[in-house]
Amino acid sequence: VMQCSASLDVLFLLDGSYSIGKGNFERSKYFAVKLCHAFDIHPDRVRVGMMQFSSTPHLEFPLDSYVTKEDLKERIRSVVFRGGSTETGRALRYVLRKGFPGGRNSSAPQVLIIISDGKSQDSPAVPAMQVKERDIIVFAVGIKFPRWEELDMLASEPTEQHVLFAGDANDAANGLYSTLAASVCSTTAPGCKVESHPCERRTLETVKELAGNYACWKGSKQPNAVQTSLCPFYRWKKVLIKHPSRCFRTVCPDPCDSHPCQNGGTCVPEGLHKYHCLCPVGHGGDLRCAPKLSLECNVDLLFLIDSSAGVTLEGFLRYKAFLKRFLQAVMGQDSPVNVGVAQYSNSVRMAIEVGQHKDVFSLTKSIDALNFSGGGTLTGRALQYITQHGFRSSSAFAEEQDNLPRVVVLLTDSKSQDSVAEVAKHARDQDLFLIGVGSSFMRAELTKVTGSPKQTIVYSDPQDLFNRIPQLQRRICSVDNPEGCQAQSLDLVFAVDASAGVGLENFLRLRGFVRSSSLHFSINRDATQMALVAYGSRAHTAFALDTHPTSGSALLQAIGQLPFLGGSASARTALLHVFGDVVTVQKGARPGVNKVVVVLTNGGGMEDAAAPAQQLRRSGVLVFVVAIGDAQRDVLLRVAGSPDYLVHISSYEDLQYYQDLIIERICEEAKSPVNLCKPNPCMNQGVCILGPGSYWCECHGWEGPHCESRALRGDSPRPQVVPPRSPAQWSSGDSWHYSRASWHTKR
């Protein structure tokens, strides 16, 4: 954006003395190169030369040496550090005698850029004044820990605009350009402006410090006598000194300043006004990485936004932005949903009646008009009002709203100052489907409002709120189209902590949780297969994927016989057991079917379980951790692999309330794409090879569909007998091929 195209002669005067040192000299060169980006290098426009000074000045190259920007920058990079004393005054007198070698004399404005630490060993005051009297614009750019008083003396007035710090090359280049743009260079780019803001200068100074008083010997008036006394003792100390100042910088509007890319998308600016977004997988519904979603469920939807003082103006504006993004992402032209918006603090105001607007543009325009009200956070009163008045149909759209499911989305980040539990229960009894959205510390109160953790959506930070758009869309439409996975193919393993750390009473609760959870799945060979493992210091399989009872009563009875083991807990042992002896083809695991291991634990014995959990994930098996009580979240996260697969519950009594949420996430995994070769279905070191919609096992010394039978030795191979209508097809190379129609492909 910055580009100086005026007729201008620029001479860099680089301090190459030993006080600078080679490292800071390289930083000086880097700054000079950075500044050249803003110069339009051309014989008729900007000419640049360079001189290095220490004990004596040395012309590195005159101003007419290079006519292209790239050649100039390459030459600056090749300048060699010379070393010597800091003779700034001598260098300025050289400039007074020789002028700007290769320049245009007085026909073009002259700019002298001195880059130094300001610690001259001669007197530069007089030559500096003479240089400025010749109408040469002088910039003094500090390097290392500069002596700012000397730099102020060297630079042109006002010093706030002509003294800079090369340690931050981008900032210093901006400051220098900002000053030139106001005088010799062309005006700033459209939309850009020069602004003043407070800043500080830093320097390292040596100060004298009293260290204390110590005993010393002094003479006395008496001959041959001395006396003791306390003498002050001083030491020298380097101190970092900060000087307040003001800086002038050019500020241009960046199209990415407003963070337009949603859901973790990366904004890439294209000039002052254009940008494009690099979107993560699953997004890209529009140019700003909106989720590829649609709100196609037929519901009446009311957003209830907290605008109390507790949520702050910033939080209220964030909720408005979230609501606009959500509606833009999920509402199409023919979306059947009717949307309304209310805001509350001490009182409730219906800002948009449900169904008042049918297009996104009108909705977002009305949302923009919402004003922050402040006041108390009376969430209970707001819910009571919404229950009575939120969905009252006006004559314009009453017929459309009759008998539709009614959904209320509460957006709040402030604890309620009145009771919410009874009011929320009454609202749910009136067939209102409540969804709560708030930050993590609001989870408990939101769960009281919604009646279920499944309908509570929490975010960890402000940006994470916008990542919850897909989750909110699913919650809203689940009332119109209940989710479930009764018919999904799934290999499901429960690993239950049966150690002494859990205790017998809590173990019985965990076992009861497994019993009630199993009722949500269709347990049979064609849908969900289930295995159950208990673990303490060792692991015990109650029943495997290929031996589980198929009738409901028999399954519940088998779960009820899961033993309490006691002893210490080792989740590592349990997961290794699951990997090697449960989710294998030999034990009934089906290739092409998603596999989930649900670990129920109090968090004990999880420290060394991350490695086997990662081994399971690499084999295509999801590890879902349900932890109850006090446990180290970072340890649990390493085992779960992602916050999406970790549910942390405060007490065993609350476990029942999280059952719907846990089952829903398991069911979502059952619907995800699957790799037919993970875990490897081939036994005895057989290699699984993927085909289009199928796989086959390449066997070595073994034979059979999964390399399960040892091949007979002899001159002639053992004849293969393929039964009629078998899905298995023999192919050359001791390999067995399976088509998608086979029992072991993805269902």
From TrEMBL:
Localization of this protein: Secreted, Extracellular space, Extracellular matrix
Chief location: secreted
GO MF terms held by the record: calcium ion binding
Matching PROSITE patterns: EGF_3, VWFA
Sorted UniProt keywords: Cell adhesion, Collagen, Disulfide bond, EGF-like domain, Extracellular matrix, Repeat, Secreted, Signal
UniProt-listed SUPFAM superfamilies: EGF/Laminin, vWA-like
Ranges where the VWFA domain occurs: 9-180, 300-476, 491-666
Pfam families to which the protein is assigned, alphabetical: EGF (PF00008), VWA (PF00092)
Organism superkingdom: Eukaryota
GO cellular component terms, A-Z: basement membrane; collagen trimer; extracellular space
GO terms classed as biological process: calcium-independent cell-matrix adhesion
Domain EGF-like residues, every copy: 253-290, 673-708
Record-linked Gene3D superfamilies: Laminin, von Willebrand factor, type A domain
Region (Disordered): 713-747
Name of the featured protein: VWA2 protein
